[in-house]
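step 3/5: co-fold with retinal
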Amino acid sequence: MVPTGPRHRPAGPVAAAARVATALSLAAVVAVVAVEPTVGWGDLAWVPLVAGLLLGLPHGAVDHLVPARRLGRRPPGTALFALGYAVVAVLAWLAFRAAPGPALLVFVALSVWHFGTGETAFADLRAGRPVQRQATASLVLGGLVLLVPLARGADDAAPVLAAVVPGAGTLPAAVPVTVLAVVLPAAAALAAERLLSGRWLEAAEVAVLLVLVLVVPPLAAFGVWFGCWHAVRHVARVLAADPAGDADPAAGRLAAPLRRFALAAALPTAAVLAVLAWVWSAADGWRGFLAAGLPLLAALTLPHALVVAWLDRAEGDAPAGRGPAAWQRVRPW
Ligand SMILES: CC1=C(/C=C/C(C)=C/C=C/C(C)=C/C=O)C(C)(C)CCC1
Ligand SMILES: [Fe+2]
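step 4/5: write tokens
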């Protein structure tokens, strides 16, 4: 697909998908927040976590097709790329098995970066700006949606972490306190900065996320954010890069691109679900399921984060109107 337009990628194909994704993600988060002061999540707080993790699975399922869609590659290139993707995932899984402690730290750091850059990239595209690197904002946003729930939910996460990293001691109590003391004021400052620069929707979103991570049981907060916010917004970007061209998404017709996405995502998602079903059957409750599933999640996250980082670079470096040559400069292989 060759982008067109004078200065940067037009909001066209992204705009409709981004609007729907914004509405869906905000509605889901507000609904989950509303449950807490009314009926309360109580003992069911693990449901949004596990459901959110499962719901979020397909968002990475067409990663192996993204460069092909962007660059118009033919199947042999795509097959090779999918193979490389799988090799990176297997290597990450082996690293997790060999050194779970350091691997978990790297996984959390990578996740903070991936979640934060996902937020800023989506906001840029939605506003019709080229994707820009915003390191501080990314760290703050990634910290807000992952580190704050982990810090607030340290007691819930402890048995999972103990199972993933056998023999590791408990985290000093100062760690979660420091995380909260740094990330929460930083997020409030980011909301204020966005508001002062006239980016009121982004400011409101940071405020909504602050309420989410402070009000809802922490791991449930992370689950709904992951499945209904991060994944939904990423899928919107994928729909905008629909292989059939810009016409459908640009005209706001999302059903056909969504169908093509669902078709392409079905097999990889089914394969991961089959592995997870086996993990669930062997696990003793949801904590055991998480402990066994985390290395798998981490393994899939590494190639996923790399592909999305490439996509961000492509959507920042290859502004519209420069033709395929501009895209070739940012080929991933
Ligand atoms: C450590 C830990 C968690 C961390 C999950 C992470 C870090 C998920 C990252 C996923 C990514 C980056 C997906 C890519 O799109 C849970 C399950 C919340 C709870 C238990 C302890
Ligand atoms: Fe992701």
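step 5/5: annotate
The pocket of retinal (ligand 1) is lined by residues 60, 107-108, 111, 114, 146, 157, 160-161, 219, 222, 290, 297, 301, 304 (CB under 6 Å).
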